[in-house]
Amino acid sequence: MTETGGPPLRPADAPPLRTVFFDLGDTLMYVHPDVPTLYLQTCHDLGIDTTPEDMQRALHAGERMYRGALRAGRNFESSLEEARRFWQEYNALILAELGVREGRAEMARAFSERFWHPHSWRVFPEVHEVLRALHGAGLQLAVISNFTDALVAVCETHELDGYFDVLVASAAIGAQKPDAGIFREALRRTGADPAAALHVGDNYVADILGARASGIPGVLVDRSLAGGRGMFDFALRDGIGGTGGVRLDCPVIADLRELLVLVEG
User: Fold this and answer.
1) Residue 5 lies in a domain
2) pLDDT tens, position by position, for the chain (265 residues)?
3) Alpha carbon of 218 to those of 118, 137, 197, 199, 205: distances in Å?
4) Where are the alpha helices (DSSP H) in 20-146?
């Protein structure tokens, strides 16, 4: 259910809503069937003998590397080159943790190709219904995502591109959320007024605080409220996954159908 008792979605004197921006991963789409299983399947295809328990340990090591990169201020999704470099290092670490000693570079590339492939993603059940309703109401829709250049192909493959006027991928424009640069670029491309816009995403820091810094109010999607799992819930990453009952200073919804109630209200 939507959190109540917090601040209103938008100020009472705000202009009518014209534009809704969406994050992609864990907001509109998810990795299928989940990240650990996808990596296990890739290992099987590569002839790597491992277990779910070994994979869990390896992915936790990767998560520690990810957190270290964030603490060091590494903007590894702000360019295609840096994204490729970072995920190559990340996947090589996973393979090392699994005991792979030879051919790691080539196998690491195979992990990245599998993860970013459009067929490794699925659309959440309510998404088409909600996007149709918002589009039918005359709202301009766009995507702002920390993603590689695969963003367009992923959206096209799953027939989402027709809803959106603009798709903004961090690796393509040189800034990643929560950097205000990616939000400014989305505003520029859409011609949207921040006061007449809204951003919807699953990460409080990247999506809510990032959008707010550009004058765009945000709505947090926490699918754990309805029993869902986030892409990286296996690692309990800060800012992603369940809000754990903490009351935040923004509306919190369990799925996008609740967004329609907020917008209509």
Assistant:
1) no
2) 444 445 677 777 889 999 999 999 999 999 999 999 999 999 999 999 999 999 999 999 998 898 888 888 889 999 999 999 999 999 999 999 999 999 999 999 999 999 999 999 999 999 999 999 999 999 999 999 999 999 999 999 999 999 999 999 999 999 999 999 999 999 999 999 999 999 999 988 889 999 999 999 999 998 888 877 665 544 444 444 455 555 678 898 999 999 999 888 6
3) 27, 19, 9, 5, 11
4) 35-46, 52-71, 80-97, 104-116, 127-136
- Report d(CA 199, CA 210) in Å as an integer: 10
Whether residue 63 is contained in a domain is answered as: yes
Paired tokens of 118: 């459009």
* Dist CA 186 CA 205 (whole Å): 18
Residues 59 and 111 in one domain: yes
Domain that holds residue 110: 35-119
Q: Are residues 76 and 155 in the same domain?
A: no
What's the structural domain count of the chain? 2
Best CA proximity match to 154, nearest among 124, 128, 117, 111: 117
How much is the pTM?
Answer: 0.90
Domain boundary residue among 84, 119, 154? 119
Backbone φ, ψ for residue 214 (5° rounding):
-100, 10
* Residues 160, 88 share a domain: no
Q: End of a domain among 94, 119, 144?
A: 119
Asked if residue 132 and residue 60 are part of one domain, the reply reads no
Q: In what order do the strands lie in the sheet with 252-253?
A: 166-169, 140-145, 19-22, 197-201, 218-221, 252-253
- The answer to the question of residue 141 being in a domain is yes
Interhelix angle 52-71/35-46, rounded to 10 degrees, is: 120
